[in-house]
Amino acid sequence: MKEVGINKKEGINHVASSSIRNVILIQIDMKSTRQLLSLKKRQGDHGG
Prior knowledge:
Layout: H1 2-47
């Protein structure tokens, strides 16, 4: 019974860490896309 409890805790920690990683990756993607959009806007302003 004790071992099962330990495994459950480890599983929860693993899921939490993976979800946090996903959130961080999503935030990084959002920042990169925003930077690309801002760069495109700048290029468009210069061109037009």
